[in-house]
Specification:
The complex is a heterodimer of chains A (113) and B (116). Chain A is mostly beta strands and 113 residues long. Chain A has no helices and 11 strands. In chain A, 0% of the residues lie in helices and 51% in strands. The N and C termini of chain A lie far apart (36 Å). Chain B has 116 residues and is mainly β. Chain B is 0% helix and 51% strand. Chain B has no helices and 12 strands. The chains are: A mainly beta (113), B mainly beta (116). Chains A and B meet through strand 5, strand 9 and strand 10 of A and strand 5 and strand 6 of B.
Chain lengths: 113, 116
């Protein structure tokens, strides 16, 4: 009954380092999403995926890479972290059938120093 | 372009008082609308959703929202606020066309504080 989990919950990294945030869901949902949440900006979509091996850019994709080799996992990689990527990152998922309501993970707080 | 506006950044109400949080959307087609709540340090939890039909929808935790097409609004209400309702509330609209089907556009949120 885990639902959707994210790891790590907290991460501090240095500028220029590569870091990967993990997202795992147990519902076999087709769609998965990555958002970042920043004060004054609300939630902004980074990338989304409609199914395994199908990904697409959202509103703020620059500096991020995603993959989806398995339905249940949707990792987000910052290839060379910058201070502007300090944020709280949320993963979400939703099934097919027009439901559209998304279910969110607990978030990862990332600090880039 | 599609957008969601939450005009109030921060609202403070007394415990037991009624609450209304405003949400206005800009979307050409029939909107799918949502309200989410986020407690400090937590993810977002779905409170309620509107897809079609009855314009007054009931959600969890005693919340309701009314869809008004003529005003492009989807305001969230609660008759009597509890201290545990202090949180941030997000309104969202779903894109229901083409390759972006299912993507949500969020408002910037309204932070609710509750006075004892």
């Amino acid at each position: 009954d885990a639902g959707i989990t994210q790891s790590p919950r907290y991460k501090i990294t240095e500028t220029g380092r590569q870091v990967t945030l993990m997202c795992h869901q147990t519902w076999s949902h087709s769609y998965m999403f990555w958002y970042r949440q920043d004060l004054g900006h609300g939630l902004r979509l980074i990338y989304y995926s409609a199914a395994a091996d199908i990904t697409d850019k959202g509103e703020v994709p620059d500096g991020y890479v995603v993959s989806r080799s398995k339905t249940e996992n949707f990792p987000l990689t910052l290839e060379s972290a910058t201070r502007s990527q300090t944020s709280v990152y949320f993963c979400a998922s939703t099934g097919t059938g027009g439901g559209y309501e998304q279910y969110f993970g607990p978030g990862t707080r990332l600090t880039v120093t | 372009a599609q957008s969601v506006t939450q005009p109030d950044i921060h609202i403070t109400v007394s415990e037991g008082a009624s609450l209304e949080l405003r949400c206005n959307y800009s979307y050409g087609a029939t909107p799918y609308l949502f309200w989410y709540v986020q407690s400090p340090g937590q993810g977002l939890q779905l409170l309620l959703k509107y897809f079609s039909g009855d314009t007054l929808v009931q959600g969890i935790k005693g919340f309701e929202a009314e869809f008004k097409r003529s005003q492009s609004s989807f305001n969230l209400r609660k008759p009597s606020v509890h201290w545990s309702d202090a949180a941030e509330y997000f309104c969202a609209v779903a894109l229901n066309y083409g390759g972006s089907q299912g993507n949500l556009i969020f408002g910037k949120g309204t932070k609710l504080s509750v006075k004892p």
